[in-house]
TrEMBL record:
GO terms for cellular component: endoplasmic reticulum membrane. Keywords: Endoplasmic reticulum, Hydrolase, Membrane, Transmembrane, Transmembrane helix. Gene3D superfamilies: Phosphatidic acid phosphatase type 2/haloperoxidase (1.20.144.10). The lineage of its organism: Eukaryota, Viridiplantae, Streptophyta, Embryophyta, Tracheophyta. This is Lipid phosphate phosphatase. It comes from Thalictrum thalictroides (Rue-anemone). It is found in: Endoplasmic reticulum membrane. Pfam families: PAP2. One of its GO terms (molecular function) is sphingosine-1-phosphate phosphatase activity. Belongs to the type 2 lipid phosphate phosphatase family.
Amino acid sequence: MWQFVSLSSIFSWIFISSFFNFTQKFRSLIQPWVIRRVITDTPFILKIQSFHHGFFDNLFSTMSCVVSVPFYTAFLPFLFWSGHGKLARQMTLLMAFCDYVGNCIKDVVSAPRPSFPTVRRVTATKDEKENALEYGLPSSHTLNTVCLSGYMLHYVLNYTQNTDSASLLAGFSLVCLFVGLIVLGRIYLGMHSVVDVFAGLVIGLVILAFWLMVHDIVDNFVISGQNVTSFWITLSFILLFAYPTPEMPTPSFEFHTAFDGVALGINRNSSLIWQKQFPFWILSVSDLKQHRPSLTDSIIILWFWADMDPLVGAPQAPRVLVLTGTVVK
């Protein structure tokens, strides 16, 4: 029943917001104020950039990759391979949620980034060049970093059951330092103004607080709920239609669509595996070549035991040997 109500509510919102043109009306209210703030913040950005140095360029450009597509491509599969299935599922869903909310707000407000070339913009990577094509508020890097590092800290403290005050202080300090460097880096690189990173910080904290209240409910639904696959497929398509139309085309919708597909795949397969509807396959090189004759014989193979505590998300029994292969071309 709750699935029908939630999907119907989103569908109703799509119809009502389209009929009354809520996106355009909200944009006309907030966009002028944000633009004024971006212009007002320009002298401060230039002051930060007056400390220009190659070391800082490399440092902040490297740190900006932490919540980029290449980072997710390596980080999220690693969580699964390391046996932390629950963390992997939750991190995937949380990052997809952050990506959707952040990009929706970006395209609703449609506020520009700091003026270039007045402000020096450093786009050392292809990912950063694509990010520069998006609107500015809120800073997705700031928002995603708050949620990623905050949830990681919550998980580690609960997984280790460490309640020592010194450990809590050390973990919180590291998270604050990391987030602070990301915030400073976004301004230094000329990618965001102060109002952008402040909005990313506030929205990130709100999303993180909300997620910490519902993450167990969401995970229980994914691994043991009813109609998980049909619900997520329907939700994924409805969210595509619910996405706001920006003032000018940006890559934000494409980024959300890609992450939406990842989240859908994770939810579906996690549900099938936990409900014992999907077998664990052990594949050999000959099996792979039978399905894909074009593959070479150069395979990197990773073996691990899925015999973990339910807290980390993998079943205790039966004990399963899993093989995954990555083709090296």
